[in-house]
Amino acid sequence: MNMGRITFYEDRNFMGRSWDCMGDCPDMHSYMSRCHSCRVHSGCFMVYDQANYMGNAYFMRRGEYGDYMNMFGWNSWIRSCRMIPMYRGNYRMRIYERDNFGGQMYEFMDDCDNCMDRYRMNGCWSCNVMDGHWLMYEHANYRGRMWYFGPGEYRSFRQMGWGNMHFMSMRRIMDSWY
């Protein structure tokens, strides 16, 4: 089993109090009052600027993030994190033009940098991840806000609290990233 480890620091450049995390944490407030830098020792994580895996999200893999707020353009610090399990195998996801798996369906087994160019699709409003772990982005070429999708059915991005969010590009989280 793959174990991830991320260390959060109160201040920029790995200064101040620190806290080690080796899994999911829905609310970091009980461990530290602020977080301005972090170091991913192993594994991959999604970090969020609100508790309970809400708000802006960013994918982190092994590396040092001495001033992530400036790097990501955030004006708030990390308040929750989720470890992404390592996956080796085939990748498969179906995306749909409408909520509740409606409209045209397309199946992906590899990265797609632009749904509009590849399929003349105006966006993705629901999906079913059959295999693997994926990052989906609001704009083409893996830009803009991102979200993590593990295996499961996602019937309505709107009902998940993402408003009018739809996705225009997606990529697999590969085992080589760990």
TrEMBL record:
GO biological process: lens development in camera-type eye; visual perception
GO molecular function, one term: structural constituent of eye lens
Domain of life assignment: Eukaryota
Record-annotated Beta/gamma crystallin 'Greek key' domain positions: 43-85, 132-174
Record's keyword annotation contains Repeat: yes
Alphabetized UniProt keyword annotations: Eye lens protein, Repeat
InterPro entries the record matches: Beta/Gamma-Crystallin, Beta/gamma_crystallin, G_crystallin-like
Pfam families linked to this entry: Crystall (PF00030)
Function: Crystallins are the dominant structural components of the vertebrate eye lens.
Family: Belongs to the beta/gamma-crystallin family.
The protein's name: Beta/gamma crystallin 'Greek key' domain-containing protein
